[in-house]
Design goal:
Helix content: 55-70%
Number of helices: 15
Number of domains: 1
CATH superfamily: Amino acid/polyamine transporter I
Strand content: under 5%
CATH class: Mainly Alpha
Radius of gyration: 22 Å
CATH topology: Amino acid/polyamine transporter I
Number of strands: 0
Shape: globular
Structural class: mainly alpha
Distance between the termini: 58 Å
């Protein structure tokens, strides 16, 4: 049976039918399908509540508090809806392990390969942000005792070791601890900035301009970079899909999605508004450096596990895609063979090295996240989900008024994603060029700690 026909046949079956799942429950084989929905929600939380939260306050400085808050809520709702589309599509086509498999259903093999490369590139860019954030933490804790690139290299090794853990279930307790770690670190900063008379980075004496605006006046470049940054902070729903294939009950995916996105959106909104209100233009990026040197060390010390685990999850999910893509429908996928382990470890190590190189080339934290948002998440989390919906609801084009409104509304959703892709990528490239010209970036592979600089 052709693969597309098999997908269509799968729609007619109960989605718990093992014949249409990527990982089978077979005696003598590794059982990957061991994740409950609560574990899944924590994994989703750690993937989402990660490096993005550390740069939203600086994005609010560009946009202003009100547009920034509306952007956080708007993208939170849009990304949640895109996650619903992807989850529903996956459970109607249960052989889909990844967003690339979904692209194969709607656009054929060429689109699958393009989407697969796009998926891996996006998540490795995100892993680069975690490497830069972890190097910043090591710098803060050690008072820059080593070159930043050495700290990046150390973080890369730790991330590769953690990412090599083969099953999402075995990352469960680590993700719990990591989420508590990064959430506590953020709260240390949120509370710390409110206890200061003036922002830590502001002049210690005399008058100063806070730079807090209800409505900002950004240029196109700064505005689109800020929007792409906020988009990237909650747009990681494409990484949830491989987790569904390791859930005991894929139908419970929506529970985990709503818990994750509800907590994430509320936390992003409250934490970023407080930090921006008290720091204004003096907010650092990553924001953990905004409450002064003592609390900076405390926040990075507490949050280091969260930053490293973030990188681990980003590498793991991209490596898992490549691993399944290479070994799918062979016995090596679930058997403890030399080929199985060689492919798995090769994917993990290779992708971690690529993440290290990207982090060294674009060492400004918010620019890396903006690049992930515009170049990666706008197509994966907005354009492609809109296409998935249109594929499964083609009959709405000639339905009643409500159905036609939904149909054309999803076309509009795709166009919004296209605008963010083109405009955001241009904005990030121009921003990086301007930063090099202004000397904000010391150079690729330099020892300068560019990642924690104040956003002005």
């Amino acid at each position: 049976m052709p693969e597309t026909a098999a997908f269509d046949e799968g729609m007619k079956l109960n989605n718990t039918d093992d014949n249409f799942e990527v990982f089978k429950k077979e005696e003598g084989m590794v059982d990957f399908r061991t994740v409950g929905w609560i574990w899944a929600s924590v994994i989703f939380l750690k993937m989402t509540f990660a490096t993005g939260v550390l740069t939203i306050p600086s994005a609010m400085y560009s946009l202003g508090a009100l547009p920034g808050a509306l952007t956080v809520v708007g993208f939170g709702i849009l990304n949640t809806y895109a996650g619903v589309i992807q989850g529903d599509f996956r459970n109607r086509h249960p052989r889909c392990h990844s967003i690339a498999d979904m692209a194969n259903v709607v656009g054929g093999g060429v689109l699958r390969e393009v989407t697969g490369v796009w998926f891996v590139l996006t998540w490795i860019i995100c892993a680069a942000s975690a490497i830069v954030g972890s190097a910043t933490a090591f710098n803060a804790l050690s008072m820059h005792s080593l070159c930043t690139q050495w700290f990046s290299f150390i973080a890369t090794i730790i991330i590769a070791l953690l990412a090599s853990i083969r099953k999402f279930e075995h990352l469960g307790w680590l993700t719990w601890a990591a989420f508590v770690s990064i959430f506590t670190a953020v709260m240390i900063v949120v509370i710390g900035v409110t206890l200061r008379d003036r922002p830590a980075a502001a002049p210690p004496t005399g008058p100063y301009e806070l730079g807090y605006h209800v409505i900002g006046s950004p240029t196109f470049v700064t505005g689109i970079i800020a929007a792409a940054t906020i988009l990237s902070s909650s747009a990681g729903t494409s990484a949830f899909l491989p987790v569904i294939s390791e859930m005991r009950r894929p139908q419970d995916y929506s529970k985990a999605l709503y818990v994750c996105m509800g907590i994430v959106t509320a936390s992003y909104l409250t934490c970023s508004l407080v930090v921006y209100r008290w720091c204004g233009q003096w907010v650092a990026s990553p924001s953990l450096g905004s409450a002064g040197p003592t609390l900076k060390k405390a926040a990075y010390g507490v949050g280091l596990l969260g930053l490293l685990t973030t990188g681990c999850l980003y590498v793991h999910v991209s490596a898992k895609y490549m691993f399944v893509r290479i070994l799918r429908d062979t016995r090596h996928l679930q058997a403890n063979t030399v080929v199985h382990w060689a492919v798995w470890l090769g994917c993990v190590i290779g992708l971690t090295i690529v993440g290290f190189l990207i982090g060294a080339a674009v060492p400004i934290f918010n620019y890396i996240l903006s690049l992930a948002g515009s170049l990666g998440f706008a197509p994966l989390a907005i354009m492609l989900p809109a296409w998935l919906w249109l594929h499964d609801h083609a009959q709405f084009r000639k339905g009643n008024m409500w159905q036609m409104a939904l149909y054309w509304g999803h076309w509009l959703m795709g166009l919004v994603g296209a605008f963010l892709t083109v405009g955001g990528t241009y904005g990030v490239i121009q921003g990086v060029i301007d930063a090099y010209a202004a000397g904000t970036i010391g150079g690729a592979f330099s020892c300068a700690d560019n990642s924690g600089s104040r956003v002005t």
